[in-house]
Design a protein that fits this description.
This protein is an alpha+beta fold. It contains 7 helices and 8 strands; from the N terminus they run βββββββαβαααααα. The strands form 3 sheets. A 4-stranded antiparallel sheet has the order 3-1-2-5, with no helix packed on it. Strands 4-8 form a two-stranded antiparallel sheet.
């Protein structure tokens, strides 16, 4: 589970594919074909990539057109596909073109809006309630800390869980992992990362 949406670019010997993966309230399986190089660009919570608002991508994936020359079509225009080296420049170009709109969440939080209006605007921008987003982000942060080897007591204290049982329930929600699963995943990543690094 995750609160932000991503642009996913995959390069194979057969060519390039691209698409937008929306915010997710549960875990999803993504195929990883051999010989494929992936690049993911994560957008800030509340940001909007026109004409694909995050709320319309909720728990889903929307493929983007790709030209024969390997350029991505966004907003009716052809764009050079981002790479690891130019991803930040690619994002700035989207902003300058008016396709990537910055998150309005912080501005609205400081504005004189009723709590009900804030909640409605949050859901309209992100596709989920503020409470759901906070639960997902906190559970992901907890899984990351546990995978890094932090004791559960430190996770509970740092992230504001009531106790170990509260932490365990959070990690057992759809899309989250148990402490053992998170730590095993970290061990696997460490072994793989020590052998190869793909860019």
């Amino acid at each position: 589970a995750r609160t932000s949406f991503h642009l996913i670019v995959a390069r194979t010997r057969d060519g390039l594919t691209a698409g937008l993966r929306g915010p997710e309230t549960s875990a999803t399986a993504a195929p990883v074909p051999a010989g494929t190089d992936f690049l993911g660009v994560r957008f800030v919570l509340g940001a909007t990539l026109m004409p694909h608002p995050a709320a319309t991508l909720m728990d889903g994936y929307s493929p983007l057109p790709v030209t024969d020359s390997g350029r991505i079509v966004l907003g009716g225009e052809e764009w050079e596909a981002p790479t690891f080296e130019n991803a930040e420049h690619f994002v700035r170009r989207l902003q300058h073109a008016g396709l990537l709109l910055p998150s309005a969440l912080e501005r609205e939080r400081r504005g004189r809006l009723s709590e009900r209006t804030r909640q409605r605007r949050f859901r309209a921008l992100t596709g989920m309630s503020r409470a759901t987003a906070e639960q997902i982000d906190r559970a992901n942060a907890a899984a990351t800390m546990l995978a890094a080897g932090d004791p559960w007591t430190a996770v509970v204290e740092d992230l504001g869980f009531f106790d170990q049982a509260h932490l365990a329930r959070s990690l057992r929600r759809p899309g989250q992992r148990s402490r053992v699963e998170a730590q095993r995943a970290a061990q696997v990543r460490g072994r793989v990362g020590s052998r190869t690094r793909r860019r």
